[in-house]
């Protein structure tokens, strides 16, 4: 028997927060093994009654990094008491947020993982709607850049935010004149050793963790709502397994956003403290808006391979699903010369990319386990490229156009740019986004 199979539950021995330094420590127990995560927010500027309760939620969200080590068959919320209204979020966090992890490791029971709450907390005695400057999460790609620009141009004076920013993210934030706030998150240093010893590994709902770090930072400094840049396609699953939808981007999707907003209100008394500005838009719509801002061409990237480099010397690997999709999404709006300058390579001239593009078009397998758009969006982009003088004769474009059963109709193309998908964006922020105009 694998040693990890003997661990019966993930437990929560307790957490600490030093209000003078802004350092939080979260402890997690897997049998006799106790692991500690550290999050350094920096010294708080204000005291707020909601802070400790936001940290409760963060304590639970960050636990998914440690749950996956042994994948025990239950979670015991023994060291943290949440309001009853926050428990649906906890169940979804583990059962859906770890769906890809369960699928890849063939751990069926995770989809129905028991969450044992030994006690619950009373709902907070307050309801607070953050009204200060928005805290805008920056990831280094086109989406957060569109949000940054929309907020800035509308005079909402965003504070740019990142957890453990690397050279890419710092470079993107440096283009903007807006102030920056960062937080340092450190996993228990024994994690690498445990993985090398045979611990389980896989995808976790990291956006849920970073979102709550952002909400805590906002509360600590008297700022406004946390503004994310997750789009409509994040809600679309990659595949169905055992009757359940498995979504690589679950923690970026609308259901996860709704769960977290409910938990923030139920447990921390925070209303409208968190939303995604781009929720109602398609990836293509966002790509068209990004194309309006050339000043980020030298620093933007969405490539995960680039994010693993210390110096970000190569911003695009040019061979991964994200590189393929972003190249596809931007091509109709930037033209060939500008896009080759951004990427440093012509992906559409490399026929070894064809199998990857077939996946994006839904011709083979399932949508890659990556943050890429819907199959329908890829097909719309292809239709636009077949009509674009810079791209219609590109080898990849010609090959795909010959293979897809049918290109999207005019109505289907128009639908990709309506920008009216379900969202919970407050009116003043929706006005800021709409002020950027049409993507085409």
From TrEMBL:
Transmembrane segments: none annotated. Its EC number is 5.1.1.23. InterPro entries: MurL, MurL_C, MurL_N. Residues 299-411 form the MurL C-terminal domain. Residues 2-277 form the MurL N-terminal domain. It is an enzyme of class 5 (isomerase). It catalyses: UDP-N-acetyl-alpha-D-muramoyl-L-alanyl-L-glutamate + ATP + H2O = UDP-N-acetyl-alpha-D-muramoyl-L-alanyl-D-glutamate + AMP + diphosphate + H(+). It holds the Pfam family MurL_N. Pathway: Cell wall biogenesis; peptidoglycan biosynthesis. Keywords: Cell cycle, Cell division, Cell shape, Cell wall biogenesis/degradation, Isomerase, Peptidoglycan synthesis. Signal peptide: none annotated. Cell wall formation. Catalyzes epimerization of the terminal L-glutamate in UDP-N-acetyl-alpha-D-muramoyl-L-alanyl-L-glutamate. Belongs to the MurL family. This is UDP-N-acetyl-alpha-D-muramoyl-L-alanyl-L-glutamate epimerase.
